[in-house]
Design brief:
It contains 15 helices and 14 strands. By secondary structure, the chain is an alpha/beta fold. The protein has an eight-stranded mixed β-sheet with strand order 1-5-6-11-10-9-7-8, with helices on both faces. Strands 2-4-3 form a three-stranded antiparallel β-sheet. The radius of gyration is 26 Å and the shape is elongated.
């Protein structure tokens, strides 16, 4: 779980300001939800493998004493994402919200994961969601807004990959794979970028799937990520087993977003895109940033989850929903790796006061300092240290360009 130095916080706050400003232009409203959720909300088999990474919270007081010796020792946990809390939030507050509702949510999530560069056990997530719009306008808005945000952060070289969970299911069915093995098949497919098509085939054989079906499935994965439209893929592989409207919906999303990007990024249909969450019901999407060495990594992802609102309301409220989550920690890591510095408005000045100054002189300095602050400058006033050379070096490291030593 990370700690942030002042220099780190400057970059983070800059990115957050830009994110809020950009998404605000697209009509998203900022909300906040608690970091703690009832355990039954977090373990409803909608969060994929994240449910195994929950930080659980013990019952408290008398409830804990009553539960001793039983299996149910916890009744809540730290949220692993922002989508589950949003669904509960909407059900609880729907009468107070516009419909459709465009939500922006920024906050900490927690996963008992293996820490690595750009991945932490406590991390900030930035999510945008549209609840109440069942059309592809929701996907287009979500992807376009996120692409604009990345552009404003100086991240131009990216690829947007799109797919649909219904296409993934049609692929499995066309190959004769049992429906109950769909989730397991997706887990294998999600490893494609690491093990290749042959590796996927080997794992499918270990599952005992038919050889003819495996061969057909692997043939569908050749050239993954390079389709400029979905219809061509469907016509070649799934023409008899998929509603053509699904492919048409995909191609509308691709063409509209590509027109908005204006060459700043690329949108492709990728039949290998899975996304790990079990709650996705339709289109899914992911943004990959490509660095100078042509290495790509995901920095944002999301999709449609039309059934979750109904589950939180026991079927009383049915509302389509679609969302996009940004890898905020990765974005900040990229900015820092690039040596990004926040440009400050005005001057940064440090006043260092020698010990023993007369009260009148201290008052004069304080008046001068506040006059400069009123003009929009950043001004620090501090006692002079014994090692003034080291003190000045540290201040200059933190961006103070003018040091004023008050001797008398």
């Amino acid at each position: 779980m990370p700690e942030q130095l002042p220099a780190d916080m400057e970059v983070r706050e800059y990115a957050l300001r830009l994110i809020k400003e950009t998404y605000g232009r697209f009509g998203f409203s900022l909300i906040e939800t608690p970091v703690i959720e009832h355990i039954e909300n977090l373990t409803n088999k909608q969060g994929g493998e994240n449910e195994s990474l929950i930080f659980k919270i013990l019952k408290r007081g008398e409830k804990l004493k009553e539960a001793e010796g039983q299996d149910e020792l916890c009744d809540s946990g730290l949220r692993y994402d922002l989508t589950v809390p949003l669904s509960r939030f909407f059900v609880n507050n729907q009468n107070l919200l516009p419909y459709p509702f465009k939500a922006l949510q920024i906050g900490s999530s927690f996963r008992a994961d293996k820490p690595q560069k750009g991945r932490f056990r406590q991390f900030t997530q930035c999510d945008i969601d549209i609840i109440g719009d069942g059309s592809n306008l929701a996907e287009i808005e979500l992807i376009s807004a996120t692409a604009e945000m990345l552009h404003r952060l100086g991240m131009e070289n990216f690829k947007i990959r799109v797919n649909d969970r219904r296409i993934l299911k049609a692929m499995s069915a066309a190959c004769g794979f049992a429906e109950e093995l769909f989730d397991e098949t997706c887990i294998v497919l999600d490893k494609l970028d690491k093990i290749g098509v042959d590796g996927v085939g080997d794992l499918l054989r270990k599952m005992g799937l038919p050889e003819e079906g495996i061969a057909r499935y692997c043939a569908m994965l050749q050239g993954q990520g390079d389709y400029e439209e979905c219809a061509a893929f469907v016509q070649q592989h799934l023409s008899t087993s998929l509603d053509p409207a699904i492919a048409g919906n995909m191609d509308t999303i691709i063409s509209c977003v590509q027109a908005i990007l204006g060459g700043r990024g690329k949108v492709v249909f990728d039949p290998s895109l899975v996304r790990g969450m079990g709650y996705y019901t339709g289109p899914i999407f992911e943004i990959e940033l490509i660095d100078k060495k042509n290495y790509s990594f995901s920095i944002a992802g999301g999709g449609r989850y039309d059934e979750m609102i109904g589950k939180f309301s026991e079927g009383k409220i049915q509302a389509p929903a679609c969302g996009f989550s940004i890898g905020f920690e990765r974005i900040v890591t990229i900015l820092k790796d690039r040596g990004f510095k926040v440009e400050r408005q005005g001057e940064s000045v440090a006043y260092l006061l020698k010990a023993g100054l007369a009260p009148e002189r201290i008052r004069e300095v304080i008046v001068e300092v506040n006059r400069l602050r009123d003009q929009g400058n950043r001004v620090l006033i501090s006692p002079r240290a014994k090692n003034i050379k080291a003190q000045i070096e540290k201040l200059e490291e933190y961006g103070y360009t003018r040091i004023v030593k008050i001797e008398e």
